[in-house]
Amino acid sequence: MAKPLPAELPKPLIDDAVRAALAEDLGRAGDITSAATIPPDAVARAAIKARKAGVVAGLDLARIAFGQMSAEIRFQAKISDGDAVSAGKTVATLAGPARAILSAERVALNFLGHLSGVATATRHFADAIADTGARIICTRKTTPGLRAVEKYAVRCGGGSNHRFGLDDAILIKDNHIAVAGGVSAAVERARAFAGILVKIEVEVDTLEQLGEALDAGADVVLLDNMPPDLLRQAVAVNKGRAVLEASGNVTLETVAAIAATGVDYISSGWITHSAPILDLGLDIDIKR
Hints:
Number of domains: 2
Strand order of the largest sheet: 6-11-10-9-8-7
CATH superfamily of the largest domain: Aldolase class I
CATH topology of the largest domain: TIM Barrel
Low-confidence stretches: none
CATH architecture of the largest domain: Alpha-Beta Barrel
Number of helices: 11
Order of helices and strands: HHEEHEEEHEHEHHEHEHEHEHE
């Protein structure tokens, strides 16, 4: 399998996310603490350092946060998104107007710490299943407004993305099945509706439902909350006909056993909605 190219995000998307975060923080009057205590012509240099080991993601968002506050801030990344860092490692340096640096600090670190946390959590899961054929993927359980950047961070950590929204793939879940009248009926209707490039995935929790989904022609089957012994049976029943995704109660303690069953993908909402931040801090010095 070819190695994927480095993850990237469109600049306009980053600009909008950062602009909204800065507007939220600056409020109606701007940074009144910096305005009250720091002369307007004061300049400073600073370094962003990792307080703990992890995987970094979000450097461009940090860069743009400082750049939107002042075009005079010079931001220099010392590593790239997706790189592992040890505690004490300098991630980036910057220099420029002191007020602007301090005004953008929290927004920059919020993005950088959160996305690096997502990347770090993903890397732990990816490393745990590195000797199998399975891949870790994220879900739609993301922070409202931050889905694209959180899914970017998953890629920086060595994971893959599930669908980005309700419009890029059909995922028939248990409630759809209940209303539609069964697995076969739901998949058949989806097949009649879908465009030729739209994949159809169906969630099942029994081997009987798996058989129905396969017979109906599902492209992907999500095996929901199945223990490893049942997942192995599902892989045997599938015989390579559909892509198999395991989901539900996936932890670092269970992910290796799940991967060993032979499923293709393992989805985790935890890596985006509950990953702890990577602690990074900004140390500032006044330029004399």
